[in-house]
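Appendix B, example 12.
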Amino acid sequence: MTQLNELPNQNPATKPVSPVLFRWAGYGLLILTLLDLATILLPPRLMDPVWEFETMGAVIERVPVPLLAIALIFFGELQFRSKWERPLIKVISWGTLIFGIFLLLMIPLGVNNTLRLNSQNITQIEAQYSQQMDQLTQFEQRLNQASPDEMKAFLESQGIALDGAATKTPKQEILSQLSTIKARMQTQADTEKTSRRNTLMESSIKWNLSALISGFLFAYVWHLTRWARGSRKKRSKVSQASA
């Protein structure tokens, strides 16, 4: 008794529509995914933490499509397979393992890039804050030596709009307002640091966990599709033993 999935010469006209349709849909999704990944990964900008982090996210966000494609391609195992599909599904089976390992290797890179980007964000915000504080310090130094008219003109040149009554107050009052501006700038800098760090950590946790889960899923698909990697002789022995 010969099993159905090992018949060498099946009439294409007798093939059921569902398995063939599912597999062709899987091949189409897989090809579209490969084209999409090519546009994401090329040209590579290695050692650029921003590109590496965003590329990791883009790859992870597209994982469900190739996973679905693989499930459709391997649907029905060897039943109603054309001869040209046998070596192809073997390559695809090994490809799931390679892609799974690739996803797992992205995790330490993602963690490292998260730390690097957080450090870069802090450095950038602190540099902007320091530059603004230097400008205010220079203004304070000029304020102590300026006349009321010079103070008003300088404030307008710096984009700091004070009402008319404020320009007539003593220098101590204006210095008090500058202290308030400094405190506000410090608060804004701290808020910006926290906001960027939280956004970065949310994306990092989501993508790294997704890479971990997806990597194991693709590796498990490789394990489940060992029938696709077996030689024809082994498949014949299995078929005879189960007949």
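The mean pLDDT is 83. Residues 161 and 219 are 63 Å apart (CA to CA).
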